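The records we work with from here on pair a chain with its fold. A complete example follows; check for yourself that the lines match position by position.
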Amino acid sequence: MADRIRTRELLSCYHCGADGYDLYEQLEDWMFGVPGNWAIRTCPDCGLAWLKNQPVVEDTPLLYENYFTHEAVEPDGAFKRVVKVGVSARLYGYNPKQRYSRLAAFLASCIGPLREVAAHSVMWQKAQDGGKILDLGCGSGANLYHLQEMGWQVSGTEPDPEAVAAAKKLLKTDDIFQGFLEETAFKENSFDALISSHVLEHLFDPLATLKECHRVMKPGAQLTFATPNIESLGSQKFKEYWRGLEIPRHFFLFTEKSLREMAAKAGFNNIRILTPSCAAYSVWQGSYLLKTKKSLPGGIPLNTSVLMRIRAILFWGWEFFKICLGSPCGEELILIAEK
């Protein structure tokens, strides 16, 4: 495969044009086995980081030969349902059909990290019963399934044909389109909300995608994008072993500054950037395994020890505490903006 993947060097910052410098070199793909040595470069001005030797567009599918986006959607247990349904209903005005304990939801809503998990489950979108929401890179439809249950009219885009088929079956809709947003030719002002979870970092031209998002959104609609935070506590601790790098599929890794400026450049208003801690638990475990084992098959930490899970919970708590003190060090950046 190494001989088949053609690359081009990107030396200057995609966002602001400044000359970058090498941050990490001689990196390998310890998750999905794409061969080769890769490097991360960063910008001294806006902080954006990027894959220095980027594959040419035509060879991008080779990065995903062992990658999958169509996992089966498992039903939520009672506690998870309380958080995702009950707490999000309290925070964002939903009137869900699912049954849950209101007392448990109230108690859970008093716990900061659980509020973050609940907010993430609805992508910080306030209730709009019957509103039209579009998910970019919807995979097998897990996020849309929850939002559909919470009252949204759902649509999605996804390049993986198997994931598209799985999402259509799960959601019982044909409004899942194979391909990228720019290929779907949605009409202007089509959607009341637009979301995307961990897609922006995979794109060759994220600014063009943000501009297209702006075009298809209705005036006043809210966009919510989640993407790894290169300035997170995990990134600072694990450096080249940080799970969020995901060499070589993550082409761009944003800072709060670079993401805010790019959203403004795409035409968005009322821009907010959040850095929640709810990914800290899994990111710590994945990063620890990458550092100690140089192996994380499938990108997911499985069958970890009790001690390792306790350490991950402590890391999550420490990250949440630092965020409460004003540090933008969460593992994700959450872009929230309006048209």
